[in-house]
Structures are given as C-alpha cells and as structure tokens.
Design brief:
Elements: E1 5-9, H1 16-28, E2 33-37, E3 50-53, H2 58-62, H3 70-75, E4 80-84, E5 87-91, H4 93-105, E6 115-118, H5 122-134, E7 138-143, H6 145-158, E8 163-168, E9 179-184, H7 192-198, E10 204-212, H8 221-228, E11 232-234, H9 236-250, H10 258-271
Helix pairs in contact: 4-5, 4-9, 5-6, 9-10
C-alpha cells in the first residue's frame, strides 16, 4: 500500500477522529502521514489523499469549491474532501453517518413528533437537516438566540415546509411538547446549568430517543440521565464507527471489518478517556 497523506483543517490542534485514524494506522502498520493546519489554503492540499475539515471552517473551504453536492449546499457545511475525477469534491459524512445510525437503531422514531436540537453551530444545522430527511417537520433549535437566527435562516432556505423554532436555553424547562428525539451537539461539561435543564426531559415523549454527538467525556452525563428517565439512548460512538467505515471506503481500505472498527474505537476511548 502506498503511503496516504491525510490533512486536517482545524482551528485548534488535531481532532479526535484524526487521532483515532492515526492510532488505527499505527496499529495496522499503514504508515499514513497526518498534517493539521489552522486555516484552509488550496496550496496545502498538494500531495494529500483526503482532507478532514472542521465544520466552522466551511466558509473558507467552500469558497474554493466549484461543485457542491446537495447535502453540502443545503446546510453550507463541509466536513471532508475527497478526490473524484482529478478534482477535490466536498462531502458531509456526518450527515450520512447520523442518518445511517437513525435508520438502523431508531426504526420506530416518531417522525410526527417534534425534535429538539441543542446547539447553535454548524453541526446543529447538519443534525437538523438529517432529522428533516427522516421526515420530522417541527424542529426546536436550542441555544444562543443571537446565533440561532442565522442558523435558522440557512435551514429555512433549503428545508421547505419545515417549521424551525428558536428556543432560548433558559426556556427549556417550560416546554411540554413531547418531542420524539433530542440531539445534543454542545459540550455540556462547560454548561452545567444547561445540562441540568436538559436532564429534566419534560419536553420528551416517554418512548423518545436521546443522542449526543460528543465522544468525550466517555461518562456522558446527559445520556446517563436519559437512561434514568427511561428514554432510549444512542451513543456517539455509533456515529464514529459509521464515519470510520465511510472514510475507509473512500480511501479504498477493505481489510478492516465493522467488528474490528467497533473494537478499535472501544480501545481508543479506553486509552483516551478525556
């Protein structure tokens, strides 16, 4: 196998997913090369096999892309670049990964009920778009109101017929709408009051689902509280495993089974608990 070069554009250091790929490469003896840059530049793509992009840097990247697939164009977010027909092509593999997890693990999700998305960043837009694709037509966006309006505007332009509601974090405990799913993209370790308010789950159906996209900390307090509330829990490692499969498929790596991916993530999280 020729040595692959994986480039990541991320504002602060190497991300968890790239650290996992680096660990996997070391254990498999692939000898992949990894580079991390804090700002995007087309010149930095030279020699790269694939690229991981922090969603917050999407505007920098997309301004250089000639062709945008539907998923990327709809939410104006990119999380990876792969070469196709000699050109760099933007992809949104978080969207594919989350949708796959919901289709596989939440077959009885009540799409007639609203959904709650906790977060006011690019990942929240991606999550919202996936939930719309699942058939949910009422989505509550929870976060900083000053940031949520721009997120709602982007979503409204592409997701026709869907009702997006902006909900300030302080109004969360006042809701009683019986949501079918809540998805969190916020680091709740830094927002204790929000964690407390979410943990009441007074806005959830008794048979609803709770999903957190944060791999760390491993002891996920929100999902632990969701289990105590007898909600059905979807752990973020499920998405990480599907994302890994999609990356390896794009890189034409066929020697790693789904079970091996599962075991490698389990070991990686045990070795990197924080």
């Amino acid at each position: 196998m020729s040595t692959l070069k994986i480039v990541e554009f991320r504002s602060e250091g190497m991300g968890f997913f790239m650290k996992y790929l680096r660990t996997l490469s070391e254990k498999k003896g692939w000898g992949w090369v990894f580079e991390v840059h804090s700002e995007f530049s087309p010149e930095l793509l030279k020699g790269a096999t694939a690229v991981k992009v922090e969603p917050s840097l999407s505007p920098q990247v997309l301004s250089h892309m000639k062709v945008l697939p539907t998923q990327v164009r709809a939410v104006e977010v990119v999380d990876s670049l792969f070469q196709e027909a000699g050109s760099w092509y933007p992809r949104l593999l978080l969207h594919e990964s989350m949708r796959s997890v919901l289709v596989t693990n939440a077959r009885d999700l009540d799409i007639r009920a609203p959904a709650f998305v906790v977060g006011d960043n690019e990942a929240a837009r991606v999550v919202s778009a996936v939930l719309v694709e699942m058939g949910i037509a009422d989505i509550y966006l929870i976060g900083d109101v000053s940031k949520l309006q721009s997120q709602k505007d982007i979503l409204t332009r592409s997701q026709l017929g869907v009702r997006f509601h902006i909900l300030p974090m302080e109004d969360l405990t006042l809701q009683s709408v019986s949501a079918g799913i809540v998805v969190n993209v916020v680091d709740l370790s830094q927002q204790k009051s929000l964690l407390t308010d979410l943990s009441y789950f007074n806005f959830m159906k008794g048979t609803g689902y709770a999903l957190d996209l944060n791999l760390f900390p491993i002891h996920n307090l929100l999902l632990e509280e969701a289990e105590r509330a007898e909600l059905r829990v979807l752990h973020p490692v499920l998405i990480a495993e599907v994302l890994t499969s999609l990356w390896l498929e794009r890189l034409k790596i066929t020697e790693v089974s789904k079970q091996e991916i599962h075991e490698s993530w389990k070991q990686f999280l045990q070795e990197n608990p924080s």
